[in-house]
Design goal:
By secondary structure, the chain is α+β, with helices and mostly antiparallel strands. It is built from two helices and eight strands; from the N terminus they run ββββαββββα.
């Protein structure tokens, strides 16, 4: 089984954004899947914004991501829903605040397809 790591451009809005930060243009986000750790989970790594900030990683159910591309899904820390015909939104909540990430749906579908292919590969000995 191989690890899948894919970059996707996304628009990120956090409640910690400051007025003097950039205009929220597309940012590279890392989508990762490691079936060796847990084949049911995916990871989204958001880059840090602004000086001295660190990236944040969110690990959640691959099934939640799949469901959220068709209809609103999730509760609590991670929520996913379709936004029009070509975009999807992933919303992350933490004690530090909320981040709303808007992806092109086709990038998430491509990532999910790769995760299914990786999960189907036999384990090398």
């Amino acid at each position: 089984m191989s690890v899948v790591e894919q970059y996707a451009r996304a628009h990120i809005l956090t409640d910690a954004d400051l007025p003097d930060q950039d205009d929220g243009g597309a940012t590279p986000v890392v989508l990762r899947y490691d079936p060796g750790l847990d084949p049911s989970l995916v990871c989204v790594a958001l880059p840090g914004r602004g000086r001295g900030s660190v990236s944040r990683e969110w690990t959640f159910s691959r099934e939640l991501l799949e469901q959220g591309l068709r209809a609103p899904a999730g509760s609590g820390a991670v929520r996913v829903w379709p936004c029009g015909r070509v975009q999807a939104v992933v919303e992350f909540h933490s004690p530090q605040g909320c981040s709303v990430v808007q992806f092109e749906t086709k990038a998430l579908i491509r990532f999910l397809r790769s995760t299914h292919q990786a999960a189907a590969q036999p384990v090398a000995h």
